[in-house]
Each structure stands twice: as structure tokens, then as C-alpha cells.
């Protein structure tokens, strides 16, 4: 063995030391998080156990456990039983060893379940030393980012291969050792040296030594201060909570994270590789699965509930395909979120992005065709561009894809034409079908015509499981409650107000006129004496006292104007908007940005259809709905603008309602629709039910309510129900 072999072994050892160094640095960073988390988690567990009555222990033994004497002895909670232990329980009159042992065993089982389910929430408004220490420990891993993750994964693979090879190649380090190694040992050493040399050379070509060195530096870097770590947490809490779930192994239920897909589909998706070369952020487990689903199934609908990161999953798919050689991609979205898409692609990936919108859109389109990257355009603008030839587009992403559920519209025709030339298409929507299976089928028809022909209304009528199985190859949906264990509490409050005399007068006038939309906003027609407006002021004032941001949603511009005037006097300089459908997209995003940047309390006014789609308002922790909406999904989407991944405070939702009129009727109808939506769409399924529950047009609904209210109040109609939002 000569110098060349010795140098090869020495190079392999240096690489192996770097590999072990990264692994050790990462292990210490993870251990620091666990050490900071343990006392917080233990206290939460203890608090839960102290609140669980001893009687619950009977449930685990199907009532066979006799606890009367234990309770007489002063033991009231599961926590007290665990503190006492079997020996102390046996000192109680009438409690034998078997009963004591069984009681403690049942208590331990409950404690184990509590440990698995209790989630740590970090309150940025009330930081205390232990949670601050946890944030600081997590900060190290968050700052290290995806590059550190890639380094650790690379190191794990190299360590597994290099360790045994270096042991086999050890005799090659010296002539004497080779001499005493024997013939078989020398042959193994020669072969091992060749593999070590190949591994180190390949690692050098791929830049692995630099990757490992940078990761070690990043994993040893501490935050500038605790305050800096807390500020960073508030800005990107989703990444912190994601890492916390990963470190603690508190992943969501695998079946839920995989959208309850059948095994044959889920297995194929799991086998799909995922390249993160062009991605700047880490994915959560369910997000990685969603990205793999889009890649493995090629033409699909990602229907995750609002706030779960459909955008980042789409960007991850774009980044993967770019790493595999694709050069041109197109995102089609409503104009209101075009700027948001552009920002997200720039922030979350290294991909070049070109907005194709406005008066210069043809020039921008030509530039994108020549230079490649991701073009972002609107449904309306898409109609003015020629679809490329087959193979010219790596992936077509259609956001808010329910906009094209009507195949007779021009926007649906344009999307279908582009989708027909592209091998990969990804539809994004939280509400792919609101009222009919046929609407859902129309989306599937664009993606996979053969599958659409096999899906019919009977699958929906048969139940959500049947529907999920039927559409599994094309449709994936997950819900917040299943996969976002860290999302702060969402508190819904229906604020029922008794209308005063002036409210009643305005309402009766609207009923007599047969004007349904005027009936819905009659509570704001007399601002000087409006019961709803008074309550809205109280909620906003309470939020101001606590330094909380508020979003006020209404379907009506004049209601928002009334609210603006009412709040402007007390909240001067802190009221933004109104954000309406007539506000240009760029201005909408600036309004949201200014609202988020405002120090302390602020109020954003938004028309619910304009502000409830696409824009992220997680700076707000109070949501006020001025009136109930006609569809459950409209309210769901609006609330999800604030209660979404990235929110760090509990979200309070106040829905303002008046008794005895249109609000009560709408709430009852909305509850029926919500139950149907939850039964089907929230489990990757949508179905038709009775026509009265779902298949009612807005106009038909309006006429019915107007007629019922005219009969109740004895007011004759002067004109048909109108819609003038």
C-alpha cells in the first residue's frame, strides 16, 4: 500500500469526523429542546390529571373497579391517586392490595394518554422563563433551516456507509498492519479503500464537506437574545411548532395526515421521492405527503382545509420538478392573491417568478416564455395567452380551483385548454364542491376524464367513506383539527342582540319592500341606535384594551362604511380599509401589510367575499362577523384568514346576530349546511343530500325567507327580493 491509499483513508476519516460532528451538534440541539420542553409539558400533564375525577378510572375497567373507599379516603383526582401510589391506598379501610394496584394501574394508563395528547402552546403575550428557554432552543433548529436538515440526512447516510468501510480499510494506513492482516484482510482492505475513495470524491464533487461545515456552524449559533428569539417566533411560529412536533414525535395521526386514502394509493405516494434543492423551507409531515401526492398522481385536487399550507405544498412540487430539469411553470389564481403568490414563491424557493398581469402582461408572458421560471397570472388574463404545445409546461397550478367548476364559463374553458397540454396539473381549493356532486365532478373531468365518468352522485349518497374511495386517485383533503395540534384555540361566540325600536322599524321597511339584502343589513340602517353596532364597539374596545388586532367582515360595503364611521371616532388612525372587491389587488395586499405592521391594536374592515379568499390575516386574534352568511364555506374561509398556521394567539370569533328575524332563519339553515359539509367535504368527501338542506339557490333562499317574514310580520310585498350587495 502506497501514499495514495493512505491519503484516501485519511480523507475518508476527515469526512467521517465531519459527519459525526454534524450528528453530534444536531443531537445536542434536539436535546436542548427536549430539556426545555420537559418541565412545561410535565406541568401541563399534572394540571390535566388534577382535573380528572377519580370516577373516570371506572371507565378503564368497565365499571368493575370499586372506588367508594378510595373517594371516602379523600382522593378526588387521578393526580392524587398517582401521588399516593399503591402502598398508601392500601392503608385505607376496605382497600386491599388488588384494588389499590388496579386503581394505580388505571391512573397510569390515563396519565400515559394525557402525556400523548397534551400540547404545549407558547403565549407570546405572557412570556415566562421556561417558555422563553424553549423558544430559544427551537430558534437554533429553525435558523439552521432546511440546509441543516439536508446535512444531517446526508451525514446519517455517510456515517452508515463510511464507518464499516473505514474499519475494513484500517490495515491500509500502514505497511506493517497490511503485512499482518493476512491475504483475505488485505483484499478486503484494498476493496474498502477503493470504496472510501469513491465516496469521498463524490462527496467533494457534491459540496458535502462545505454543507457539513456550514451546518455545524449553524447548529452551534445561539440567538442574539431571548427577545430576538421571541420576535422571530411570532414572525414564523409555524416553523417553530413544526419542529417541536418533529422533535417530540407528536406527529398527527398518520391516517389523518394522509387524508384517509386507501392503502394502495397511500403506498404509491409514500414511495415518491422529493427533491428539496430549490426549496428554502422545511415541510411538515402532512405537507410532504401532500406534495408527494401531487407528484405521484400527476393530475389532482389538493383540497386541504384553509390554513394548512396548500401554497407551500404547491411550491414544493414546483421546486422538485425544477430540480429534475423542468423549466416552465404556470400558476393561475384570482387577481386578489396574485401578489401573495409572487411573494411566497420568492420567499419559499429559489425559483424565478414573473407576474403576468396588468397592461404589460403580454411582454411579461413573452419574457417568461424565453427565460422560464414560474409565471403567475389570473383567470381572466389566461384567456389572452396561447396554450403551449404538449410538454411545454412542467406543472400547471390552479389556485381557488372552484372558480372553474362551471364548465360553460370562459375561465373554465381557458383552464381546460391549458390543462390539456400539460402532463401535471394541481388544483388547489378548500371548497372544491359546495352544493352538488356534479360541480366536483366537473373539476375532476378536467383532470382525469375517465375517473370523472366513474364518479356519480350515488357515491356521495352512500356516505363519505364510499366517496373518498371513489375519488382517492385525484383528491386529497386534510383538516386543521387532525394535523395542526399546535393551532391556538378557536372560540366561537354568537352575539345575539335584541333589536331596538329603530332596528325593528328599519327591518319592517325592508320586509315590506321584499328586499332580502336590506333585511340582512337592517340592523345597521340606523347607526345612532343600532344594537349590533353598539356590541361591535364594545368588542373592539375590549380588544383595544388588550392590544389585540381585529378583523371585521361584512358582505355589504355600506355596513363596512357605517362600521368605519362608528369606530373611526374612538380608533382614529387604527382603522384600515375597507377592503372590498373594487380595491385593486396590490392595494389589498398593502392594506393587509399595513394592518399587520401597525403596533398594538388595529382594526381591518373587509368585505367577506374579498377578504375571505387568499389573503392571510393571522395578525388578527379577534374576528367579527357583522351578519350570518348564506353558505357555511364563506364564514369558514373568512375565519381561516386569521385562524391558520402561523397564528400564535387564540382566535375569538364573534358573530353578530339579531333575534326574531332573518338572522335566526339563516343561522338554522347554515347549521344544516355545516353539518352536511362536515360529514362529507371535511373527510375528503362531498355529497348531495336532500334538496332542502343543500341544493337551494341563494335567490330561492331569499324569496323563501322574505315570504316567511312577510307572513310573520303581516307585511305585504311591494317588490321582489333583490340582491344589491
Q: Widest sheet: strand order? A: 3-4-2-5-6-1-7
Proportion in β-strands:
5-15%
Total number of domains = 3
Distance between the termini: 87 Å
Mean pLDDT: 84
Task: Tell me about the largest β-sheet.
Answer: 7 strands, parallel
Low-confidence stretches: 675-696, 717-725
Number of helices, where a helix is a run of at least 4 consecutive DSSP H or I residues: 33
- Helix-strand makeup class: alpha/beta
- Label the overall shape: globular
Radius of gyration: 30 Å
Number of strands: 13
Helix percent band? 55-70%
Organism: Streptomyces nigra
Keywords: ATP-binding, Helicase, Hydrolase, Nucleotide-binding
Domain Helicase ATP-binding: 291-450
Protein name: DEAD/DEAH box helicase
Could you explain the architecture of this structure?
- The chain is globular.
- The protein is of the alpha/beta class and 725 residues long.
- The strands form two sheets. Strands 3-4-2-5-6-1-7 form a seven-stranded parallel β-sheet, sandwiched between helices.
- Helix 6 (129-169) runs antiparallel to helix 9.
- The model is unreliable at 675-696 and 717-725 (pLDDT under 50).
- The chain has three domains: 1-250, no CATH class; 252-482, Tandem AAA-ATPase domain (Rossmann fold), CATH 3.40.50.10810; 488-660 and 695-713, P-loop containing nucleotide triphosphate hydrolases (Rossmann fold), CATH 3.40.50.300.
- Helix content is 57%, strand content 9%.
- The chain has 33 helices and 13 strands.
Amino acid at each position: 500500500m502506497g501514499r495514495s491509499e493512505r491519503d484516501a483513508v485519511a480523507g475518508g476519516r476527515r469526512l467521517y469526523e465531519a459527519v459525526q460532528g454534524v450528528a453530534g451538534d444536531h443531537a445536542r440541539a434536539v436535546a436542548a429542546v427536549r430539556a426545555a420542553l420537559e418541565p412545561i409539558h410535565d406541568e401541563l400533564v399534572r394540571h390535566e390529571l388534577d382535573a380528572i375525577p377519580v370516577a373516570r378510572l371506572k371507565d378503564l375497567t368497565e365499571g368493575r373497579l370499586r372506588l367508594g373507599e378510595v373517594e371516602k379516603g379523600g382522593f378526588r383526582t387521578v393526580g392524587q391517586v398517582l401521588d399516593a401510589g399503591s402502598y398508601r391506598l392500601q392503608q385505607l379501610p376496605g382497600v386491599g392490595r388488588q384494588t389499590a394496584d388496579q386503581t394505580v394501574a388505571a391512573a397510569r394508563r390515563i396519565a400515559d394518554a394525557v402525556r400523548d395528547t397534551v400540547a404545549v402552546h407558547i403565549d407570546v403575550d405572557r412570556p415566562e422563563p421556561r417558555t422563553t428557554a424553549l423558544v430559544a432552543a427551537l430558534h437554533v433548529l429553525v435558523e439552521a433551516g432546511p440546509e441543516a436538515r439536508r446535512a444531517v440526512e446526508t451525514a446519517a447516510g455517510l456515517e452508515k456507509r463510511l464507518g464499516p468501510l473505514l474499519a475494513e480499510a484500517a490495515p491500509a494506513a500502514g505497511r506493517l498492519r497490511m503485512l499482518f492482516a493476512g491475504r483475505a484482510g488485505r483484499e478486503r482492505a484494498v476493496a474498502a479503500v477503493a470504496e472510501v475513495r469513491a465516496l469521498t470524491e463524490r462527496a467533494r464533487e457534491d459540496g458535502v464537506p462545505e454543507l457539513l461545515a456550514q451546518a455545524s456552524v449553524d447548529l452551534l449559533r445561539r440567538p442574539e437574545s431571548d427577545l430576538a428569539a421571541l420576535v422571530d417566533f411570532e414572525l414564523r411560529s409555524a416553523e417553530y411548532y413544526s419542529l417541536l412536533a418533529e422533535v417530540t414525535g407528536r406527529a398527527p395521526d398518520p391516517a389523518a395526515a394522509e387524508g384517509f386514502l386507501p392503502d394502495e394509493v397511500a403506498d404509491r405516494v409514500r414511495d415518491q421521492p422529493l427533491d428539496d434543492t430549490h426549496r428554502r423551507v422545511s415541510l411538515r409531515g402532512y405537507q410532504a405527503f401532500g406534495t408527494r401526492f401531487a407528484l405521484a398522481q400527476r393530475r389532482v385536487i389538493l383540497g386541504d382545509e384553509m390554513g394548512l399550507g396548500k401554497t407551500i405544498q404547491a411550491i414544493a412540487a414546483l421546486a422538485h420538478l425544477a430540480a429534475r430539469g423542468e423549466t416552465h411553470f404556470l400558476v393561475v389564481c384570482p387577481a386578489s392573491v396574485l401578489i401573495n403568490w409572487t411573494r411566497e414563491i420568492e420567499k419559499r424557493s429559489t425559483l424565478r417568478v414573473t407576474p403576468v398581469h396588468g397592461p404589460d402582461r403580454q411582454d411579461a408572458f413573452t419574457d417568461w416564455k424565453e427565460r422560464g421560471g414560474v409565471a403567475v397570472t389570473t383567470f381572466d388574463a389566461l384567456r389572452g395567452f396561447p396554450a403551449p404545445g404538449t410538454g411545454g409546461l412542467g406543472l400547471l397550478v390552479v389556485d381557488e380551483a372552484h372558480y372553474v367548476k362551471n364548465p360553460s364559463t370562459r375561465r373554465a374553458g381557458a383552464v381546460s385548454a391549458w390543462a390539456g397540454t400539460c402532463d401535471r396539473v394541481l388544483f388547489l381549493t378548500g371548497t372544491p364542491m359546495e352544493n352538488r356532486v356534479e360541480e366536483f365532478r366537473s373539476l375532476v373531468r378536467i383532470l382525469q376524464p375517465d375517473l370523472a365518468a366513474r364518479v356519480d352522485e350515488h357515491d356521495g349518497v352512500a356516505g363519505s367513506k364510499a366517496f373518498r374511495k371513489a375519488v382517492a386517485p385525484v383528491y386529497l383533503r386534510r383538516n386543521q383539527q387532525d394535523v395542526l395540534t399546535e393551532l391556538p384555540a378557536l372560540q366561537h361566540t354568537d352575539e345575539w342582540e335584541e333589536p331596538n325600536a329603530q332596528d325593528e322599524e328599519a327591518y319592517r321597511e325592508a320586509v315590506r319592500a321584499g328586499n332580502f339584502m336590506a333585511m340582512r343589513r337592517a340592523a345597521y340602517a340606523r347607526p345612532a341606535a343600532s344594537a349590533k353596532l353598539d356590541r361591535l364597539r364594545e368588542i373592539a374596545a375590549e380588544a383595544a384594551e388588550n392590544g389585540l388586532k381585529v378583523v371585521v367582515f361584512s358582505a355589504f360595503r355600506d355596513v363596512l362604511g357605517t362600521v368605519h364611521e362608528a369606530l373611526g371616532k374612538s380608533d382614529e388612525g387604527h382603522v384600515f380599509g375597507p377592503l372590498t372587491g373594487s380595491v385593486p389587488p396590490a392595494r389589498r395586499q398593502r392594506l393587509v401589510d399595513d394592518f399587520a405592521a401597525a403596533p398594538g391594536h388595529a382594526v381591518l374592515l373587509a368585505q367577506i367575499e374579498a377578504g375571505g379568499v387568499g389573503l392571510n390575516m393571522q395578525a388578527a386574534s379577534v374576528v367579527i362577523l357583522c351578519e350570518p352568511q348564506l353558505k357555511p364555506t364563506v364564514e369558514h374561509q373568512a375565519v381561516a384568514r386569521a385562524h391558520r398556521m402561523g397564528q400564535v394567539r387564540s382566535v375569538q370569533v364573534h358573530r353578530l346576530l339579531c333575534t326574531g328575524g332573518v338572522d335566526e332563519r339563516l343561522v338554522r339553515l347554515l347549521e344544516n349546511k355545516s353539518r352536511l359539509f362536515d360529514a362529507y367535504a371535511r373527510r375528503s368527501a362531498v355529497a348531495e343530500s336532500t334538496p332542502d338542506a343543500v341544493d337551494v339557490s341563494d335567490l330561492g333562499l331569499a324569496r323563501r325567507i322574505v315570504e316567511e317574514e312577510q307572513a310573520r310580520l303581516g307585511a305585504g310585498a311591494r317588490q321582489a327580493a333583490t340582491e344589491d350587495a
